[in-house]
Automatic annotation (TrEMBL):
One Pfam family named in its UniProt record: GvpL_GvpF
Compositional bias of kind Basic and acidic residues: 11-29, 333-342
GO cellular component, one term: gas vesicle
Protein name, UniProt field: Gas vesicle protein GvpL/GvpF
Record localization: Gas vesicle
Disordered, as annotated region: 1-38, 241-273, 311-342
InterPro entries: Gas_vesic_GvpL, GvpL/GvpF
Species of origin: Halopiger aswanensis
Family in the record: Belongs to the gas vesicle GvpF/GvpL family.
Keyword tags: Gas vesicle
UniProt entry tagged with the keyword Transport: no
Length: 342
């Protein structure tokens, strides 16, 4: 999905990836095996970028460079640190290789831990700019400081554009989807086709039934589109950005992460009863959460509808890409949904 992200200007100035390691990259050279991964003598695994206030920094180290504290452990239990330059912090841990495994359960654990660190950084410092899983900067802490200094303007623009804003997901489900008979009763064209089928011979009736089926699909789609458009308009008054998502997302590692963390699927409760009418993602200021909840309460009050509201969580969908993916594309970082009752 393409979005006009937080300060779309920040998206137009992609950060230099020359020193970052793409986990899909393979060693160059004719002698490299197809399964080899990039070698790293020393690197820093990147979780996210945060704004660090003066009061959040500890005493300067021996070289006069302050670091901020984040009391958590990272992927594979590695100690996490926050490297600060010019008031901007990179949440990292030291590493000497990428995280690559054929064991899906292991990858799930890594993903959950990565995104837990990003969540905790958000709680400690405010809205973070997340990196994709397994983004690594070659070099030591000093190299990270150099990179933060080099990219200061872009990072400040992104952080200020997203300050105090969080991502929320909304799914509207019809618990008992309307049946064909009810739609036929409500739609004049469907009533006409249904009547003609009963009065026609076998060959003609077969063709009319195909038309009836197609019309039913059109009526259902129009009903979903109308509900989605109405909800988007109402939410747009409270949220900064509102975007539609696929009603039935394909399975991915992100889904595996939600399963591992006990959060369920896209709806946040692991229940697939009913028909999903729409799925939306919102970027909203934290002060607007109650207003959004009130709007969704009105929708949930409609007979037969259930609203699943998840968040607040870091703005994975709306943040500019800082690592991984296609440098020239519009890819954005996405994470697991965290269950929250509106």
């Amino acid at each position: 999905m393409s979005t006009n992200g937080p300060g779309s200007e920040a998206e137009s100035e992609r950060t230099d990836r020359a020193d970052r390691v793409d986990p899909n990259e393979r060693l160059e050279g004719s002698d490299a095996d197809a399964g080899e991964v990039p070698a790293i003598d020393e690197g820093r695994y990147l979780y996210c970028i945060v704004q660090v206030e003066t009061g959040n920094t500890e005493d300067a180290d021996s070289e006069g460079d302050p670091s901020a504290a984040l009391d958590t452990t990272g992927v594979d239990g590695e100690p996490v640190s926050v490297i600060v330059e010019d008031g901007i912090g990179a949440v990292v841990h030291a590493c000497d290789g990428i995280y690559d495994s054929a064991d899906l359960a292991q990858v799930r654990r890594w993903l959950v831990r990565h995104q837990t660190v990003v969540d905790e950084a958000g709680q400690a410092f405010g809205t973070p700019i997340p990196f994709q899983f397994d983004t690594i900067l070659r070099g030591d802490d000093e190299r990270v400081r150099e990179w933060l200094h080099e990219e200061r303007e872009t990072l400040e623009r992104a952080l200020s554009g997203l300050a105090d804003h969080w991502e929320y997901r909304v799914e509207v489900v019809e618990r008992d989807p309307i049946d064909d008979a009810t739609l036929i009763e409500r739609d004049e064209r469907l009533r006409e086709l249904d009547a003609k089928i009963g009065d026609s011979g076998e060959g003609t009736a077969f063709l009319l039934e195909k038309k009836l089926t197609q019309r039913l699909k059109e009526v259902r789609a129009a009903r979903r589109e109308s509900l989605t458009a109405d909800l988007e308009d109402r939410l747009a008054d409270a949220a900064r950005e509102v975007h539609s998502l696929e009603r039935s997302p394909t399975a991915s590692l992100d889904d595996a992460v939600t399963d591992e963390s006990g959060e369920g699927g896209a709806g946040g409760n692991g229940v697939n009863d009913g028909e999903t009418l729409c799925r939306l993602t919102l970027l909203a200021h934290e002060d607007a959460e109650s207003e959004i909840g009130s709007i969704l309460d009105d929708v949930a009050a409609e007979d037969g509808l259930e609203v699943r509201f998840t968040g607040p969580w870091p703005p994975y969908t709306f943040a500019p890409e800082l690592g991984g993916g296609d440098e020239s594309g519009d890819g954005q970082t996405r994470g697991r949904e965290q269950r929250r009752e509106p």
